[in-house]
Design brief:
The chain has 319 residues and is an alpha/beta fold. The structure holds flavin-adenine dinucleotide.
Length: 319
């Protein structure tokens, strides 16, 4: 079996998700040929070396000025070319905006579907099963993809990077490509960095909200309390996924890691992926459900409605 990982570059480095995927596929598909495809302009040797160390046996590169920035059409053409050349069984990419744009486009051109945002891969005999959390992560969808070629994107942060990788020097295969006018109808203009960048790492107080907050507007009370306490707000992925707050406020496995003196967790259930990002001196949990896992980690627990309790705390502190 041949596995092809689509590598992504971010801020001049191989994106961590790519290394995490390499770790996972090496674990699940030990006896398979694991290769990576890397596109860009002026591809660096250090990237190729790093991919080898993290388990890529072969790296198929396409080095072209047209691939300096991600654009759909040139990338579709480049990936299609590599697929035609090596005929992989599985093509897998991190579900970043680029991965989620590219793989379904290439898949649909081949008349197959693409499993998206998976968080696990399992082999059961000859079957390959892809797991995707659904219904707000309360249930797991397990998919088999029929057909000779399987396109898959992963949820970002789903797989850990191997801290002690033991791979070696990969074989590098340079693939030639020529782009035509029709491949370049869309031009790259500029990249603007997001204006909201929050450093939660140094915050001494964090008032974090979860799904229990109930909506974007309801975050106001958390913002007010955080402001009075000289702190910041934080959020679970449930909230950032629903755009109640910007992604940059997410705390946990795929968000920021924080170590405040005080962490107020309001309407947060206490999922391991959230908890793994918190090292607080004092954790105060507010939840209506007395059996919520968050209480296992809390120094102080308040069973009740955050919409009544947070205004009370605000009032007491303001007195
Ligand atoms: C690979 C992967 C990576 C992930 N990475 C992250 C990550 O980095 N960060 C992250 O946060 N999540 C992450 N998740 C998601 C995580 O698994 C949980 O789904 C998520 O943390 C749940 O968010 P929540 O606690 O806000 O929502 P829920 O689990 O739905 O909990 C809501 C809680 O609010 C309580 N509640 C409801 N109403 C009220 C009220 N009025 N007052 C008080 N309490 C109330 C409920 O009792 C419940 O306990 C990841 C998941 C996966 C699979």
């Amino acid at each position: 079996m041949k596995i092809l990982v689509f590598a992504q570059i971010r801020d001049g480095k191989i994106e961590e998700n790519t290394l995490g995927i390499l770790n996972k596929v090496n674990e699940v598909f030990r006896d398979s040929e694991i290769s990576v495809t890397l596109f860009g302009s002026n591809i660096k040797d250090e990237w190729i070396k790093q991919l080898g160390v993290h388990g890529a046996k072969k790296v198929h590169t396409i080095d072209a000025p047209e691939l300096e920035y991600y654009l759909s059409r040139p990338n579709v053409k480049a990936l299609s070319k590599v697929i035609d050349k090596i005929q992989p069984t599985i093509i897998i990419a991190a579900g970043t905006v680029y991965g989620e744009d590219l793989l379904p486009r290439v898949a649909i051109r081949r008349g197959v579907s693409c499993a998206q945002r998976i968080t696990d891969i399992a082999k059961e005999g000859e079957e390959i099963l892809f797991h995707t959390p659904v219904r707000d992560d309360q249930a797991m969808k397990v998919q088999k993809i029929t057909g000779d070629i399987k396109f898959v994107t992963t949820r970002t942060g789903a797989f850990f990077v191997n801290e002690n990788p033991t791979g070696g020097e990969p074989e590098v295969i340079s693939v030639d490509i020529t782009f035509e006018e029709k491949d370049l109808l869309v031009k790259h203009v500029e990249i603007k960095k997001a204006e909201v960048t929050v450093n939660l790492k140094d915050a001494k107080v964090i008032v974090a909200g979860g799904r229990g907050v109930g909506g974007k507007d309801q975050f106001t009370i958390l913002k007010e309390l955080a402001s009075i306490l000289g702190g910041q707000i934080g959020a679970t992925r449930a909230c950032t996924d629903m755009n109640w707050v910007e992604e940059t406020y997410e705390i946990g496995q795929t968000g920021q890691s924080v170590s405040p003196d005080v962490y107020i967790a309001a309407g947060i259930s206490g999922a391991p992926q959230h908890i793994s990002g918190i090292k607080a001196k004092t954790l105060i949990a507010i939840n209506t459900d007395e059996s919520a896992a968050i209480f296992n980690y809390a120094d102080y627990g308040i069973i009740g409605d955050l919409h009544s309790i947070l205004p009370l705390i605000k009032q007491k502190i303001s007195e």
